[in-house]
Amino acid sequence: MTAPEFQLDRNPFGRLVLTTADGHAHNGVTPVRAFPVGAPKLGLSLISADGHEVLWVPNLDELPEATRQLLEEELATRDFAPQILQLRSVSTYSTPSTWDVKTDRGDTRLVLKGEEDIRRLGGGALLIASGEGVLFRIADMHALDRPSRRLLERFL
Known about the structure:
Blueprint: E1 6-10, E2 16-20, E3 25-33, E4 42-47, E5 53-59, H1 65-78, E6 84-90, E7 97-103, E8 106-112, E9 118-120, E10 126-129, E11 135-138, H2 146-153
């Protein structure tokens, strides 16, 4: 289905309701990204309450503004990958190492168990898995301040 062939709203309980072109309403649909890290705007599936895909959205940016906004709000409540804005200090340059970082969600500490927990993504982006299982993102390692880049380079 394409964007004009469906409608997305919230019910009184705040759950998403997908109405298809034939008038069938699917209550409590859940958006799931196909490529949450590499291409977050491409490939989105709307899953019914019973776990079946009811709609595939190839590109989030091609949807009407109101529909896209509803989906992005719902995805924001499900996605938790804080973006590291600054590395303030590291406990040691060998692993395991405790990092004191500033993120877009506040200051925190994370434990890096090994260098293999840092994944390089395209465009200078990094994905860092902490010892606690939380994934942290660095959108562009080249955009970090110089002291942060120096600390990070010791682990790459």
